[in-house]
Amino acid sequence: MLPDLTIVIGGAASGKSDYAERLVREASDQRLYIATAQAWDDEMRVKIQAHQDARAADGWRTVETPMDPAKALTAMASDEVALLDCATMWLTNQILSEGDLDTAKHALFDGLSQAPGRVVIVTNEVGAGIVPENALARRFREAQGRLNRDLAERAGLVVTVIAGLPLVLKGTLP
């Protein structure tokens, strides 16, 4: 059985979302997909639509919430397993909105602690590359690193995915 909170972390196109979806599918027939992406351009609109179509065909209940996933987390059923995909898009949305990031993180963590069901969160590892050349990118990288550490501290299971292969960093796979 999955713990209350599982984190799946990896680089871009590492297979982390596919792996996280598989964990949730194996854990429950009652699946909630909490999507945080926003369609800023045509490419992203096509990608989001493809994901929506695939989830609908696979029996997921989906909540699109780019800014406030805590509401979906606290409203989920106790027999559901939620997949929040992804914390990186949520963080991007928060930073670009120029809102109070500490308040938003506090709300997210409150939502996680009050979620009646189990939660799997996908997030990107962005700290393995070079130092970004601009201030916004450096701010984002630092905020993502802090968010990932805070999530991992709260999680019972943390799995990194590299080239589609999972490696447990914390906890034990069910």
Automatic annotation (TrEMBL):
Keywords: ATP-binding, Cobalamin biosynthesis, GTP-binding, Kinase, Nucleotide-binding, Nucleotidyltransferase, Transferase
Species name: Donghicola mangrovi
Pfam family, one: CobU
Top-level EC class: transferase
Gene that encodes it: cobU
UniProt cross-references to NCBIfam families, sorted A to Z: PRK05800.1 (NF004469)
GO BP terms in the entry: cobalamin biosynthetic process
Family: Belongs to the CobU/CobP family.
GO molecular function terms noted in the UniProt entry: adenosylcobinamide kinase activity; ATP binding; cobinamide phosphate guanylyltransferase activity; GTP binding
Active site: 51 (gmp-histidine intermediate)
Function: Catalyzes ATP-dependent phosphorylation of adenosylcobinamide and addition of GMP to adenosylcobinamide phosphate.
UniProt cross-references to InterPro entries, sorted A to Z: CobU/CobP, P-loop_NTPase
EC number annotated for this UniProt entry: 2.7.1.156, 2.7.7.62
Protein name, per record: Bifunctional adenosylcobalamin biosynthesis protein
Pathway annotation from the record: Cofactor biosynthesis; adenosylcobalamin biosynthesis; adenosylcobalamin from cob(II)yrinate a,c-diamide: step 6/7; Cofactor biosynthesis; adenosylcobalamin biosynthesis; adenosylcobalamin from cob(II)yrinate a,c-diamide: step 5/7
TM stretches of this protein: none
Swiss-Prot/TrEMBL catalytic activity: adenosylcob(III)inamide + ATP = adenosylcob(III)inamide phosphate + ADP + H(+); adenosylcob(III)inamide phosphate + GTP + H(+) = adenosylcob(III)inamide-GDP + diphosphate; adenosylcob(III)inamide + GTP = adenosylcob(III)inamide phosphate + GDP + H(+)
